[in-house]
Amino acid sequence: MGQFLGIGIGAGLVSALLFSLLLKGTALAILLYLLAPIPILIVGLGWSHKAALVAALAGSLALAVAVQPFLGLGFLAYLALPAWWLAYLALLGRPGADGTMEWYPTGRLLAWTAGTAALAFVAIAVIAAPNYETFQTQLRDMTRTLVTIQTQGRAAGPARPAPDAANPASPGADSAKSVDVKPDALNLDGAKSDSAKSDNTKPNDAKPDDALKDDVADALARIAPGLAAQGLAVLLVFYLWAAARIVKVSGRLLRPWPDLPSTRMPRRVLGILAVALLLVFVPGYPGVLGVALAGALSAAFAIQGLAAFHDRSRGRPGRLALLLGLYLILFVTQGVAFVALTLFGIADTALDRRRPKDASGRP
Question: Is the overall model pTM greater than 0.85, yes or no?
Fold first, then answer.
């Protein structure tokens, strides 16, 4: 008991230190902050889930005392408890009929990773703003700021030089001279010219830029929980994989390495996705949970689609070229192919047409 207490407290302090670096705001600090859950996952997968729970509580307590209580609570809800929970699920197992250990399936673990990401986002949102209206106001202010920064960056361009009236050779000077005529020559009957009219009139149905920016910012605010939970789900999958690889290299991994390409979530996850889409229309934090869960599940289905592509390409000629082409498309399209992978993962779960595997996980 003393061993997992000591290793758990040490891992929790390291994780809390990495998390607190976010306050510095530098690029290196943000990069190290992103690694904060890995120490908790390492002790959870290499020792026990009890050590991971000790690490989560110790890190949260250290941040609450040394920095501020809100930071410790945020660390516990957003990263520490999700890391402990995923380590706990990864080590679940039961004896099979033949006496071998049946470990928790990777497909269910992937589904729980998405659900954990959605719940973690809603938890940190409630902690930051218990009042839903306050949360919405903060979210809209943030998205308006992002939209304003983007539009200002695109609108900024190279400054055009002003015409040099003093230089006769200047094109601007020639144009200035060409329009330097008497007013009587243009308006003989005292009427205004068509060009003057066009300059002083605007279409009545033209929408102001500020209103358009507000509409874009409001739309982003509605989908922001889904995007945030989607990114967190991808990060949690990466954290779990990276921690498991580290523990496996050290020889302390308590379960055999699974066949990752055969990962497939159960069909009931499709029902959970349908419920999440219905929750989107519910006001308040239940609606936020629906958006976050839909976004996180889309990431999980995309990861499953990637695994299915690996699985179905096994044993085929030119497999390496196919995989390299897939990853190149993902990189070049900057996430557009993510939608296709998500649909592929949904179809893979719904149709369940994977090739059967033998005991070794090979097709």
Answer: no
